[in-house]
Structure formats: structure tokens, C-alpha cells
């Protein structure tokens, strides 16, 4: 069964029959946390770097921001029995939203990823795999059965029939 | 299965701290990290203790990393200690020479994941950790 993670949304699961999926990651980040021992995985689709930009909004939608979204994701997978020592983090997204010759003035994608890296480092996590940056739209899936993450990539603003590339990241443990 | 002892030789305490934390976050069962502030101190440690890996900076006071590595490579007891150099050295020829006599080179500034991947690759190659046992 498929669980779809919307924008500013989070899903966790310990059901090996489930696939967690999020679509259209542009400058947003898709972050997966998977514990292969407990068989628990989760995914969050965050939009903006720091919740201090709008703390009220962050309370209503913690998954909107990288800092509160990551914290929420980790709490949720811990609640299902995941352990910090076993968790693998995989990240996708953080693309530049530059159009044509225009500049990506706000650099949201880059800032999202920088914020995430800082938070992970401070909390003692390293990224197992990452597929970030560029001018690409990504779709990310996590198979709860085995922790395999698939990232499908397509150029932003490309015609619908443009060829896409898919990368697969297999759990390392 | 995965107990490692790593020597970090760098004159910058902050860099030593970053490398040490990276090693600790690699998920080994047990990690012992020894720090040295220059090549002379580093040589003293490798002569007195067995290491699975030495992570060595090149530009250091007293004795630089290249001198330290050169001395290790002519010493029968030390020539097989795996060395990973981490340096801001930009001279291509020097980097090539260093790469030839060491097991790997990581350019500063580095991304911690790149350092981790290089380190694990060396440890796998030396059969210190089994292939595919790469931690998270």
C-alpha cells in the first residue's frame, strides 16, 4: 500500500507492505529515516529552513520547516521503536528554482540543505545518501520492507515526456 | 567486528575535532582516536601503538605530513599503516605524489560524508571492516 506524503507533511510506518512516497521535490527536501533493525521508516517533505520565520505556523505544521520537521520525524520513528544508533538518513531535493537566465534569489533549496546538514551534525547523524541540488524535480519513495529509497528525477519545467532518471539507494546495513 | 583505532595528525584543534567526530559517527562498535598536533608527535604515536588508519594533514609545523609519511614508508614496521591525507594542498603534482604513497587523499574543505566514505573504503580494502558493512 502507498502512503503519500504531501508538502509539509510526514508519514511513518512499521508495516513492511507499505511504500512511502512524496512527489515534486523542487527546493523542498524529502528526508527519510529508516531503522533496518526495527523495520521502521518515515519520510518528511519540508519546505523552508527555519521555524523561527513563523513559529505559530510551525506549531500548526511542524513538517513545513527543516528544523521542526526533522525533529518531528525522528520522534515519530522513535515512537515506533526505531533506535538512534540504527537510523539511516537519506535526503533528496534542495534544487535551485532558477528559471532560464534568472537568478535563484532566495536560494531556498541550498538553505534548506545547509540547515539540515547543521542539524544532523549537531545531533550526531550523518547522511547515508543524498541526491540534492541541480535544477531537478524529484520523486522519492521509501520501501518500509527493506529501506530501499528510490529517487526519480526530471528537469524542472521540462515537457511532460522528457526523459527521467531513477536512482536507487539501498540500505547499507 | 568493527573495532578501530585511528590516529589524527593535524595542527588545527578544530579540524581534529571535526575528523574525530566524523570517525565516531561512522558507527563502529568501538573507536579509539588518538590526536597529534604535528608530524613528529604523530610518528611517536605510530611507533608506539598499532593503528588501523592514520589521517594526516600535510601542512604542519615542526614536521609536516609529507615528511612524516615519507619516514613511515621507509620504516619496515610502519610502511603498511594505511594513511589518508587530508589537506588544502592545491599543487597537483604534490597531490599526485602524496596519493601515490598513501591510501587516499581528501581535499580541504571537505564534506564529512566524503571523508567518511574514503575512510571506510580504505578500511574495507585493508579488510579491517568487511565490505558492505559501511555504517549509516
From TrEMBL, chain A:
Keywords: Chemotaxis, Hydrolase. Gene3D superfamilies: 3.30.1330.200. InterPro entries: CheD-like_sf (IPR038592), Chemorcpt_Glu_NH3ase_CheD (IPR005659), Cytotoxic_necrot_fac-like_cat (IPR011324). Its EC number is 3.5.1.44. GO terms for molecular function: protein-glutamine glutaminase activity. It catalyses: L-glutaminyl-[protein] + H2O = L-glutamyl-[protein] + NH4(+). Belongs to the CheD family. This is Probable chemoreceptor glutamine deamidase CheD. It comes from Gracilimonas mengyeensis. The gene is cheD.
UniProtKB/TrEMBL annotation, chain B:
The modification 4-aspartylphosphate is found at residue 57. Residues 5-123 form the Response regulatory domain. Pfam families: Response_reg. InterPro entries: CheY-like_superfamily, Sig_transdc_resp-reg_receiver, ST_Response_Regulator. GO terms for biological process: phosphorelay signal transduction system. The keyword Protease does not apply. Keywords: Phosphoprotein. The keyword Cytoplasm does not apply. PROSITE patterns: RESPONSE_REGULATORY. PANTHER family: TWO-COMPONENT RESPONSE REGULATOR (PTHR43228), TWO-COMPONENT RESPONSE REGULATOR ARR22 (PTHR43228:SF1). This is Response regulator receiver protein. It comes from Gracilimonas mengyeensis. The lineage of its organism: Bacteria, Pseudomonadati, Balneolota, Balneolia, Balneolales.
Amino acid at each position: 500500500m502507498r502512503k503519500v506524503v504531501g508538502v509539509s507533511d510526514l508519514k511513518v510506518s512499521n508495516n513492511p507492505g507499505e511504500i512511502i512516497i512524496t512527489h515534486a521535490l523542487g527546493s523542498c527536501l524529502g528526508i527519510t529515516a529508516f531503522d533496518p533493525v526495527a523495520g521502521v521508516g518515515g519520510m518528511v517533505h519540508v519546505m523552508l529552513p527555519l521555524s523561527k520565520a513563523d513559529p505559530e505556523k510551525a506549531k500548526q505544521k511542524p513538517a513545513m520547516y527543516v528544523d521542526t520537521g526533522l525533529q518531528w520525524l525522528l520522534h515519530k520513528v522513535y515512537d515506533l521503536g526505531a533506535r538512534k544508533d540504527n537510523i539511516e538518513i537519506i535526503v533528496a531535493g534542495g534544487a535551485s528554482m532558477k528559471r532560464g537566465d534568472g537568478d535563484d534569489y532566495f536560494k531556498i533549496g541550498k538553505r534548506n540543505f545547509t540547515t539540515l546538514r547543521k542539524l544532523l551534525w549537531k545531533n550526531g547523524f550523518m547522511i547515508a545518501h543524498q541526491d540534492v541540488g541541480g535544477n531537478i524535480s524529484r520523486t522519492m519513495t521509501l520501501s518500509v520492507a527493506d529501506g530501499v529509497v528510490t529517487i526519480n528525477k526530471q528537469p524542472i519545467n521540462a515537457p511532460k515526456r522528457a526523459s527521467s532518471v531513477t536512482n536507487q539507494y539501498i540500505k547499507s546495513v | 567486528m568493527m573495532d578501530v583505532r585511528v590516529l589524527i595528525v593535524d595542527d588545527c584543534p578544530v579540524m581534529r575535532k571535526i575528523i574525530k567526530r566524523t570517525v565516531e559517527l561512522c558507527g563502529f562498535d568501538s573507536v579509539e582516536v588518538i590526536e597529534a598536533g604535528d608530524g613528529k608527535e604523530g610518528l611517536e604515536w605510530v611507533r608506539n601503538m598499532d593503528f588501523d588508519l592514520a589521517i594526516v594533514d600535510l601542512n604542519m609545523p615542526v614536521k609536516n605530513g609529507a615528511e612524516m609519511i615519507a619516514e613511515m614508508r621507509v620504516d619496515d614496521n610502519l610502511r603498511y599503516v594505511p594513511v589518508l591525507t587530508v589537506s588544502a594542498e592545491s599543487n597537483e603534482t604534490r597531490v599526485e605524489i602524496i596519493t601515490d604513497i598513501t591510501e587516499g587523499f581528501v581535499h580541504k574543505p571537505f564534506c564529512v560524508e566524503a571523508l567518511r566514505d574514503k575512510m571506510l573504503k580504505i578500511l574495507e580494502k585493508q579488510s579491517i571492516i568487511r565490505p558492505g558493512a559501511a555504517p549509516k
